[in-house]
Amino acid sequence: MEQTLNGFQFGILLFLLAAGLTLIFGIMDLINLAHGSLYMMGAYFAATFTQWTDSFLLGALLALPACMLFGVILERIALRTLYTRSHLDQVLATFGLILFFNEFVRLIWGPIGLDIPLPELLSGSVELFFGIRYPAFRLVIIAVGIMVAFLLYLLVSKTKIGMLIRAGASNRQMVSALGVNINLLYTLVFGLGAALAGLAGMMAAPIMTVEIGMGEGILIITFVVIVIGGVGSIRGAFVAALIVGFIDTVGRSFLPDILGLFVSNDIADTAAPAISSMLIYILMALILAIKPQGLFPPKGA
Amino acid sequence: MKFSPRIYIITLLMLALGAVPLIADSIDEPFYTVLFSRMLILSIGAVSLNLILGFGGMVSFGHAVYLGIGSYVVGIGTFHAVEDGVEWMGNGFAHLSIAVAVSALAGLVIGAISLRTHGVYFIMITLAFSQMFYFIAVGSENYGGDDGLSLYMRSDFSGLLDLSNDNSLYYLNFAFLLASLYLSHRLTNSRFGMTLRGTKSNEQRMKSIGFPVFRYRLVAFVIAGAICGLAGVLSSNQTDFVSPAVMHWTRSGDLIIMTVLGGIGTLFGPVIGAVAFLLLEELLSGITEYWQLFFGPMLVLIVIFARGGIDGMLVALDRWWLQFSLKKNTKVD
């Protein structure tokens, strides 16, 4: 049960990252490898602001607009010229940005990871039904994630901006031809994506160490998520994030036992960690072999 | 034939690469032999990546897998040769042939699945496959797991070559580089290569003419993997060490950078790129500990402004030279 919730919580974190990434890809046709760096910046901003204000909540509230601003500046300076370039150019340039940000963080914050203490209020655990206890902070992550997913749903499907985002995702030229300021829309979407990635980073900060390169491992998993979900589809990102989060977490905790049923315990113990790390990639390969466009291919693409 | 500065520069580079151990020995800096040896090995990797990336238009983000496979063939082989006394497992020819076979097989499986997809999906699925192999290596506790494996010996080419001598290893690398360049040249100018280049510029057209595009791409994918597997064998011999880090996804990124930096889709571009990449790394890291702070933005600028890479600049130099000499001639007339 606890592992199921952990899987759910990891899935929610992945969704926050994947939603921004899939929007950016769907609308600007940009493969942004530096999305993981935004996640890392979110965590570092939160750590710094928490130290300044002595409050994680205040720190997070300050870090959120900081991330958004950071994303907007990044988009204006570096990424804007890449929209019309080939995927190869985009991969290269944003790979260069990763190198830059990792070094930048090492220069500013030093090579040693930071620890953010959990706020008093949330450091305990909460009793759920049937006497199962679960860490309060992880519950908060789940709650915030679901709330953000809901707000995002409202934003995308009920507001004018959301309409433009959806229109932009299916036909960019048409939207700009209709007189919409597409550049502003791009900047907005990128800022939104950056804020979501930063939010994921600051929520992950207290339960994982804040360190250089923290964005890279999760970036690749996020790519797996959006590819499984169908690039450009928020709904796909949500479903795929939960599936991937669940499989990864549950696989890690139960695979040794499951394998133990079939082969000797020694083999199971050595093979299980490797296989469980591979599970999501196997899943991705399987899904792409059957549906090369992912589970929810965006319409009109 | 017209005078071409580009051809002169490339010839000079290759000759210089051939002379590195001699120069390094004469100035008593054997370190340079090792540095340039790494350049040669990564050049082979980049040449092989260029076959699919540059000529076939397949952006594979998992090419370091084959470096890993080649490295682990040597690592595992020499491990058993020393620990269990299985002599053939230390043999260099065995290493080379097994590495090629396993890399080709891996390329066949990865390619058969990945090539069904296109665009960003292809980039991501090749990345995912490389992560799978990475985690297999991390999980293989017998062979050092995450920490990797130190080689007790280098591949044994008894009677022919003594690889424990860095200069012999250097010339073995050089020979393999020349061989892979020759292969790349013959391949890309053959009917097969023309078809492959055709699929890059217009897949639909090639399909309608009646070419089985998927099969052509798959064959290229397998060949590229096999060549890069060879580079892996050389690489672990060079470093006397194998670890999952050789196939970390950033290594695949490095290979792409080298290929693009040098000039994608050209014969010598990948070599120029690998040499430039490692020289830059060496220079910048000598100046500052935070060298990537400069290397990263440089990469972005190169992508944005210098299309065609260094080889593209050389082509521009050729053009400039041609105009320059034309002007001079007209003045004389």
Task: Walk me through this protein's architecture.
The complex is a heterodimer of chains A (301) and B (333). By secondary structure, chain A is mainly alpha-helical. Helix content of chain A is 75%, strand content 2%. Chain A is built from 11 helices and 2 strands, in the order H-H-H-H-E-E-H-H-H-H-H-H-H. Chain A has a two-stranded antiparallel ribbon. In chain A, strand 1 (125-127) and strand 2 (133-135) form a beta hairpin. In chain A, helix 1 crosses helix 6 (160-170) and helix 2 packs across helix 8 (182-204). The N and C termini of chain A lie far apart (40 Å). Chain B has helices spanning 5-26, 31-55, 64-83, 92-114, 119-139, 166-188, 191-201, 203-209, 213-239, 249-262, 269-287, 292-305, 309-332; strands at residues 149-150, 241-242. The longest helix of chain B is centred in the last third of the chain and has 27 residues, at 213-239. In chain B, helix 4 (92-114) packs antiparallel against helix 9, helix 7 (191-201) packs across helix 8 and helix 10 crosses helix 11 (269-287). Chain B has a single domain (31-275), classed as ABC transporter involved in vitamin B12 uptake, BtuC (Orthogonal Bundle).
Mind sketching the topology for me?
The complex is a heterodimer of chains A (301) and B (333).
Chain A: H1 2-28, H2 35-53, H3 56-79, H4 87-109, E1 125-127, E2 133-135, H5 136-158, H6 160-170, H7 172-177, H8 182-204, H9 214-229, H10 234-262, H11 265-290
Antiparallel strand pairs in A: 1-2
Chain B: H1 5-26, H2 31-55, H3 64-83, H4 92-114, H5 119-139, E1 149-150, H6 166-188, H7 191-201, H8 203-209, H9 213-239, E2 241-242, H10 249-262, H11 269-287, H12 292-305, H13 309-332
Helix pairs in contact in B: 1-2, 2-6, 2-9, 2-10, 2-11, 3-4, 3-9, 4-9, 6-9, 7-8, 7-9, 10-11
